[in-house]
């Protein structure tokens, strides 16, 4: 039983092929720069050699075709024919209130994802392109969609409503949805398993910090609050996204700089965050390297990033009246010892004590980085959104 997992972005597409009998990854890869000249496909068969090709990939349909060709390639492939793929699972960022769990794709599901374009203009259109590209290349294969928002559907009204006229919620569904739910779900459960304690008895703060980042307060095993909002722009400072700001800044800047709605959205999503403050990079590796060399702008970007993150941790301690476990995950959370160190350095009032040696260890497994006498367990748990998508897909096609 083989399941192909796809995470389609506007100009990229990441994939993983699973053998569901033992949940092993047979191959993974990504296509970048779709629709631009010299698109790149990186294909990594498990245990084999990474293989890169540069060619013109005009759209997602051709991207999927290239992925299927790589998966069945005589030299680099991992199966004889695409007929061996039993189902395809897609990450979909915005499911709003329409989808509380994963579903099989049909005409109505696609229509609903389309209806939600306005609530995730950067993400949902790309997901539909991915779904339809699979339809064109493999018309008989069942597809499943797994939503970033589903895990957060348990939030209470007081956490998901904004204090604006209620008619905007009734008419336009303006509310907090939250994202990265698949990851927050996976790492909170994995943390409880690692600690050998029931998740239902724990207050957990999960910090998913990658290119995009969000924090979630997980109490009694469910999401009770999360830092991203109606779109993935709210909350933390991210690679190129501003996160929280005074909403009055938006009309003020639009007026002063004569910006359109599209332009101001683009500025806040693509030209803000670490990139804007450092003036040089959105990548935490480059920020910390430049900081080590004394670059003032990168140092400020790092300090602002860490400060916002720490304030959110504090607010979720307040939201849950305590915290038992803090989990770091995703690109920065799993790899940046200095981010974890600086955040925890200022959480001593909670009784957080980090073990500097454990914090430095690099590993692909869940691990504790706090000392035995720390009042809060601090863990690093590598996320695995693709595995959750593969499992949901497998479960739904069995029904
Ligand atoms: N060793 C590292 N040290 C610091 N940051 C890292 C390291 N490795 C990766 N990152 C950060 O992780 C980010 C990507 O995280 P990831 O979770 O893969 O993001 P996304 O899924 O949103 O593309 C990069 O932008 C980079 O800043
Ligand atoms: C929802 C979101 O922000 O996703 P990503 O971190 O993959 O950009
Ligand atoms: Mg991600």
TrEMBL record:
It comes from Paenibacillus nuruki. Catalyzes the formation of acetyl phosphate from acetate and ATP. Can also catalyze the reverse reaction. Its cofactor is Mg(2+); Mn(2+). The keyword Cytoplasm applies. GO terms for cellular component: cytoplasm. The lineage of its organism: Bacteria, Bacillati, Bacillota, Bacilli, Bacillales. It comes from the Bacteria. Its EC number is 2.7.2.1. Coiled coil: none annotated. The record marks 180, 241 as: Transition state stabilizer. GO terms for biological process: acetate metabolic process; acetyl-CoA biosynthetic process. Pathway: Metabolic intermediate biosynthesis; acetyl-CoA biosynthesis; acetyl-CoA from acetate: step 1/2. Mg(2+). Can also accept Mn(2+). Its main location: cytoplasm. Substrate binds at residue 91. Signal peptide: none annotated. GO terms for molecular function: acetate kinase activity; ATP binding; magnesium ion binding. It is an enzyme of class 2 (transferase). Homodimer. It catalyses: acetate + ATP = acetyl phosphate + ADP. InterPro entries: Ac/propionate_kinase, Aliphatic_acid_kin_short-chain, Aliphatic_acid_kinase_CS, ATPase_NBD. This is Acetate kinase. Belongs to the acetokinase family. ATP binds at residues 14, 208-212, 283-285, 331-335. Keywords: ATP-binding, Cytoplasm, Kinase, Magnesium, Metal-binding, Nucleotide-binding, Transferase.
């Amino acid at each position: 039983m083989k399941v192909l997992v796809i995470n389609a972005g506007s100009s990229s597409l990441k994939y993983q092929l699973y053998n569901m009998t033992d949940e092993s990854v047979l191959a993974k890869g990504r296509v970048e720069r779709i629709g631009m000249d010299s698109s790149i496909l990186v294909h990594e068969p498990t245990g084999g050699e990474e293989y890169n090709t540069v060619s013109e990939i005009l759209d997602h349909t051709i991207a999927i075709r290239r992925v299927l060709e790589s998966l069945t390639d005589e030299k680099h492939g991992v199966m004889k024919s695409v007929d061996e793929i039993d189902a395809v699972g897609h990450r979909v960022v915005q499911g709003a209130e329409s989808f509380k769990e994963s579903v099989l794709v049909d005409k109505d599901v696609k229509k609903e994802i389309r209806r939600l374009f306005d609530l995730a203009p950067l993400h949902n259109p790309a997901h539909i392109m991915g779904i339809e590209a699979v339809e064109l290349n493999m018309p008989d294969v069942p597809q499943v969609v797994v939503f970033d928002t589903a895990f957060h559907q348990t939030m209470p009204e007081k956490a998901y409503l904004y204090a604006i006229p209620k008619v905007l919620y009734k008419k336009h569904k303006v509310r907090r949805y939250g994202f990265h739910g698949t990851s927050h779900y996976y790492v909170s459960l994995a943390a409880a398993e690692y600690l050998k304690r029931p998740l239902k008895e724990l207050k957990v703060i999960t910090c998913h910090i990658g290119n995009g980042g969000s924090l979630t307060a997980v109490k009694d095993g469910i999401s009770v609050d999360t830092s991203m909002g109606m779109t993935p722009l709210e909350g933390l400072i991210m690679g190129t996204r501003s996160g929280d700001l005074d909403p009055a800044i938006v009309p003020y800047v639009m007026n002063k700089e004569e910006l359109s709605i599209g332009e101001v959205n683009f500025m806040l999503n693509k030209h803000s965050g670490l990139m804007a403050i450092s003036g040089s990079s959105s990548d935490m590796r480059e920020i910390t390297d430049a900081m080590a060399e004394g670059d003032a702008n990168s140092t400020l970007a790092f300090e602002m990033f860490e400060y916002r993150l720490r304030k959110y941790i504090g607010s979720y301690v307040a939201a849950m009246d305590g915290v038992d476990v803090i989990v770091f995950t995703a690109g920065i959370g799993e790899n940046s010892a200095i981010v974890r160190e600086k955040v925890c350095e200022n959480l001593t009032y909670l009784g957080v004590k980090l073990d500097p040696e454990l914090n430095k260890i690099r590993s692909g497994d869940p691990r504790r980085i706090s000392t035995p006498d720390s009042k809060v367990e601090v863990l690093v748990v590598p996320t695995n959104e693709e595995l959750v998508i593969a499992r949901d897909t497998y479960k739904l096609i069995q029904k």
